[in-house]
Amino acid sequence: MNLDKEMDIIINVEDQNWNACNGRTPKDSELQIVDNHTFKVDWIRIYKPIDKN
Length: 53
Fold this sequence. Notes:
Blueprint: H1 17-21, H2 28-31
């Protein structure tokens, strides 16, 4: 596995089809209240591979 390239961290809370099909998509009136749908990330842990030798 080639893990020596720089990578990006993607944090995504996209509305997936399986949620929408089950009626879990927020309504426009719900989206008006920003505090109810703001995703805040407090901590991200990143590991750096080390050489076993």
